[in-house]
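Title: Prediction job returns without error message
Component: structure pipeline
Severity: low
Priority: P3
Assignee: unassigned

Description:
Job completed but the reporter wants confirmation the result is attached to the right record. Sequence as submitted:
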Amino acid sequence: MEFPLYNPRKLKKWLINMKWKDWTPSRFSVLCINHFEEQYIDRTGKCVKLREDAVPTIFSSPGDTPKRKASTNPKSKRYKPPGVKATQTSPAPATAKRSVQNKEHNQPEEEPAGDKEPKKSDKWRIIVDEGLMKIESFPHFFHGDYCVPRDIQWAPDDNVTTECEDPENVIEVKEPWQWLGLDVRGPLPQTLNGHKYILTVTDYYSKWVEAVPMQSCLPSHVAKHIMDIIAHFGYPLRILSRLPHDIVHKINRELKDQLMVTIALVIYHQQTGTVDLITQQLIDRMVSDLIEEHAADWDVYLPAKVFSLCFKEHSKTKERPFSVLCCRGLEPVQSPRGLNYAYSKIRETAFVVR
């Protein structure tokens, strides 16, 4: 639900109830309907909306972790979110504000702060660069620390449009295993094998997903799994990632040393999580279901979950990712591919997928 920016008195009531210090909503900010009591919700029309006097009153206390897990975990099967109005901007992870506050990723040589705490947490996030969060067009959702609505759909950013006046600033993904997206999710509840993170690599064309558990999200660990994926599927054109810029640089350095290549395979790009929103939502749901159903050994069940994801018809392409990537006779590319784009040029380019 959009904030009542037009009504200062009403907006003040909302912010007082939220108890969020040093935060001001923008025109991109929205609040989940689950923070409102039923008396404030009008369900009589074709769409659910708030009554004129609606004020959010339902908020879990910061230390009330068990209650949040039981009642506001959006990925759980018990949670049935109502319709949520779309924002008109490119998405950032709903827990972006927490990502900005985390400093461990400015020190990639050390274990992340989450690794130092033995207790399990029911909250996880996509690890992103805090620099991306400073981009004006990225929303910072207040309710990110409470819930992540699974039904939110974002419209394309006005600044990243496929109807670009300069076609040289748009790259269309036309074939399988050309452009990939890389993310790291965590920290998750630590398994008996010591895994706390999930590395995901997605093919933007076929929607194929590779997901592997990791004990740490250090650059050397990420690079090792990238090499394993390349050994099986061949070299892509490049891999987009929203990991912190310095970590991307160190991953590339590891890859250059291990693969004996001269190009930077991983490219820091703010559009990584927005190119293919549907697949990202499927992955998020898969991860949350895993940690809810198999908290102590989600890493054991991860391969089966990914297998199921890749063998189901994708709602956007109406094809199975396996059929698109593996059944068309494409041979893995055994050496790095050249590009007509400079590294800096790719970072400024908008990607378009089917």
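Comment from assignee: result matches the submitted record. The first strand starts at residue 41 and ends at 42.
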